[in-house]
Design goal:
Chain lengths: ~150, ~240, ~90
Amino acid sequence: MMEMVLYAGAVGLLVIGIAGLVLSHHLFRQVLALVIAEAGANLLLLLAGYRFGGEAPIWSEGSFPSVMVDPVPQAMVLTAIVIGVGIQALAIALLIRVRQQTGTLDREQAVIEMREALDQELGRFSTAPKPRSQYAPKGERPLYPVVEEGQDAR
Amino acid sequence: MSREQRSLEWTPLLFSGGLAFLLFTLFIATMFGEPPMRAGAMIQQAGGVELGAANLVTAVVLGYRGLDTLGELAILFASATAVGLVLSTQNGESDKQASVFPDKIFLGEIFESASRLLMPLLLLLGFYIIIHGHLTPGGGFQGGVILAIALFLPALARSGEIPLNHATIRLVEGGAGTLFILIGLMALMQGESFLQPLLQPGEIGALFSAGSLPLLYLAVGLKVGAELAALLVHLSGESA
Amino acid sequence: MVESIESWIALLLVGVMLSAALVALLSRSHLVAVVSVSVLSLGLTLLFVLLKAPDVAMTEGVVGAGLSSLILALALSRLGLLRSTKAGATDE
């Protein structure tokens, strides 16, 4: 029962994190989903080194336990947690910059704003088809005058 | 998010459900509780005797996998530098508004006194955990994070008053990184491999044991603490 | 360890962690989301203690429940998400 519960927890956290990363439309929620997925991955890695009846891998006064859990995954998880917080801070910094530049934290909206800013900076309209979000209102105003005929008809 | 958009999202949900099923069946098939890895058992037998560290996790982090720790410090350094690079405001646009602490307000006597009282205690706890890293649970990473939080505590409690300036933090960080690499290079000069533990292992359980591992952990702790403190200062928008 | 008290504690902790993860992604308020991520880190810390990994538990407690929450709270303040708690989770 124990291993079923623990594996369910680890895999559940990993999958909830990945699903949130894919499904969420808010950039801050995506960072939170990344943190959750990271927690699940750490737990999964640590479970690989567990040993039934094992003691913590520390030799204390007078007792030298014969059965200990594996210290190598623990060392790897130790470094992974500290790296994770650095990645998280970097993601937050990028989010702060995105909000300063585009004024929004929605995923599709930020992409559209950034592409428009890039197009304006390049000083020309891009010849590629417009990056139209599937949630954007269709055909409200013709932003791109240089289109082939029939493209705007629908 | 309106209602008709939610109906489009069953494909990712199906994907994540399938992923959960796949991972679950994969890991249920592995042996839980009896890990087949040989390296862990060998380290358990030899680690204490070879390195003199009572904490075998420390023996792995600094002794057997010291190069990985150096790479991890490099990643942390890169991310802290990238945070500073991304958030640096050259044109100084609305610096006052960007800060978390817009004006220096008085938060109350309890906050002031408690922060003044807690900061030395937290620093002491951080150094204690770093120095006893080879004996008890703890070490450079944990103690370094505690140091960073202790350095950032006055900024939280006294509304944006950073006790250290950037030059000091950068000096500590660079010095600690150099110390880590120098210890590794000293092993190289004595004919050993890079980051091989030096000095005598000593008696297991004594404070001055485990050779050069406490020195390495001290370097790691100072570097992690300085980097995370600089990162917090950058994220809070202060220009200290 | 089968059917012992540790199994039940692990079951409780896993339940708390999974529900905290769901709350973090589904709640409307960003502040509630950050707090539940901290709760998840705390549960993970206790689970690491249960799995005989005191070093990792200490790191997770200090980093996950302390520093990470501080960074996320600073991010809430910097991103201006604290005041718009009444609006939906997907609004700016």
